[in-house]
Specification:
The structure is a single chain. With 111 residues, the protein is α+β, with helices and mostly antiparallel strands. The chain has a single domain, classed as Alpha-Beta Plaits (2-Layer Sandwich). The chain contains four helices and six strands, in the order βαββαββαβα. The strands form two sheets. A four-stranded antiparallel sheet has the order 4-5-1-6, with helices on both faces. It has a two-stranded antiparallel sheet with strand order 2-3. The longest helix has 25 residues. It is globular, with a radius of gyration of 16 Å. The chain starts with a strand and ends with a helix. 14% of the residues are buried.
Length: 111
Amino acid sequence: MIIKTYKIDGKAVSALKKVIELPEAMVEGKWQINEFARNGYLFQSAVALGMKGDEYYLYIKGEEPFFKANEQKIKLEGVTELKGKEYDEIKSKFEAGEESVAAGVGAVFDF
């Protein structure tokens, strides 16, 4: 499993959302599939992640074939793949949020 995080400049948010939120539809007799929706991703503002700034962050967990087939679609101006310390920091923020949600859901069913 590969995990990648991206920083999205406030100006690039709209263009990126057009890619990752593309509705699946029949186009010229062929289904247009949204691989991002099917694979899953997390998209949050810096503020929602407890940081300052107007940028957004994208977290994607997937297999190598998914990234080979789809990563070019999100390599837009204003979208930067994170590496090193910044990658580790943002990845841990997303994963802490996922763990918090999972713990909350588990508590609902804990009798």
